[in-house]
Write a sequence for this structure.
């Protein structure tokens, strides 16, 4: 955990200043942590919370996430989040990302590794964008034979069968660090 990790019983705030929020309790004098986690003070609502490590795996608006594509629909992709701002997460939270406006034969395939930015939480669903240059596919394979592909300008070409295809590539495409995610 980071340097501001807190432990059960740790003092979070004075009850004169803050109410006990989630994962905390009020001992009559202080708001204290009921779990390990990270202090999360809501200054405007005057509530002191503790974010449990499991809650830390829920990305916030503005976070950059990397994950594997779980489903591809005509208007969106669903992505299982593996990293939030570069930190691995084991919780397997999913987000959705609209792709309707992207003119590519295949924006991404199931199993591709993509980078996205979280834009909002709406009706219990986490929404992301792929529209900026650094967002998009980091790792993909040939749709025909499943072998390695290389980038050719905006397209990709299979090193095995020479099939040429398209993805919404990230400017970080080809960064091999993510190959290990494929297991
Ligand atoms: Zn191929």
């Amino acid at each position: 955990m980071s340097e501001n990790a807190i432990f059960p019983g740790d003092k979070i705030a004075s009850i004169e200043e803050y109410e006990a929020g989630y994962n905390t309790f009020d001992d009559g004098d202080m708001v204290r942590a009921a779990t390990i986690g990270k202090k999360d003070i809501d200054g405007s609502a005057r509530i002191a919370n503790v974010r449990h490590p499991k809650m830390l795996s829920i990305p916030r608006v503005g976070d950059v996430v990397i994950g594997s594509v779980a489903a591809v629909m005509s208007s969106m992709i669903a992505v299982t989040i593996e990293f939030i701002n570069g930190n691995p997460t084991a919780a397997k939270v999913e987000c959705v990302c609209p792709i309707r406006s992207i003119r590519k034969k295949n924006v991404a395939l199931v199993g591709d590794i993509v980078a996205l930015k979280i834009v909002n939480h709406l009706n219990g669903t986490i929404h992301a964008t792929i529209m900026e240059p650094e967002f998009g596919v980091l790792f993909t394979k040939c749709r025909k034979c499943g072998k390695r592909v290389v980038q050719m300008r905006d397209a990709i070409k299979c090193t095995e069968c020479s099939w040429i295809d398209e993805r919404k590539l990230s400017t970080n495409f080809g960064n091999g660090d993510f190959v290990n995610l494929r297991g």
In short: Residues 142, 144-145, 147, 158, 160-161, 163 surround zinc ion (CB under 6 Å).
